[in-house]
Amino acid sequence: MTTGEQLIDMVAQGAEVPPELLTVHSVQHTDANGRSALHIAAMHGRVYAVVDLLAAGSCPLTADMFGNSPWCYARTETCAGQSIHSIIYTAARAQPFAAISLF
Fold first, then answer.
1. Is the dihedral of CA 9, 66, 54, 88 positive or negative?
2. In a domain, 103, yes or no
3. Residue 52's domain spans which residues?
4. For the CA atoms of 19, 94, 87, 42, what is the dihedral angle to 10 degrees?
5. d(C-alpha 97, C-alpha 103), whole Å
6. What angle do CA 65, 16, 59 make, to 5 degrees?
7. d(CA 58, CA 52)
8. Angle made by CA atoms 58, 64, 70, in degrees to the nearest 5
9. Alpha-carbon distance values, 103 to 32, 39, 71, 83, 93 (Å)
């Protein structure tokens, strides 16, 4: 199992991710549906994982095979999702051409 696969599994399970798994390569790894660990963290309302993944360089604008970015999944969350939505939105705004790609 690659470090990217381990990272996605740990985020999906809600486990605390060790810093050594937060490499540029592992945070950009995607599963069969094109979802990164950031997509999974946003879908499951994992606020701390979202913050760690963004700090490690995960791109908030990358779309999965369904055309959804992590920010899109954060919009569908409730309660904790509001925090995730704001965090991802702020990170996405810092990306070049974010206004074009965000929605």
1. negative
2. no
3. 3-97
4. -70
5. 11
6. 35
7. 9
8. 50
9. 23, 15, 9, 18, 11
The whole-number pLDDT of residue 99 equals 44
Q: What's the CATH number where 62 sits?
A: 1.25.40.20
Mean predicted confidence (pLDDT) in 63-79 = 81
Q: Total structural domains in the chain?
A: 1
- 78 lies in some domain: yes
What are the tokens at 16? Answer: 């605390």
Cα separation, 79 vs 84, in Å, equals 9
* Residue 102 within a domain: no
Express as a percent the part of the chain with pLDDT over 90: 46
> Is 82 a domain residue?
yes
Helix extents (H) in 29-95: 37-44, 47-55, 70-75, 80-93
Q: How far apart are CA 41 and CA 14, in angstroms?
A: 8
- Crossing angle for the helix pair 37-44 and 47-55, nearest 10 degrees? 160
Angle of helix 80-93 relative to helix 37-44, nearest 10 degrees, comes to 140
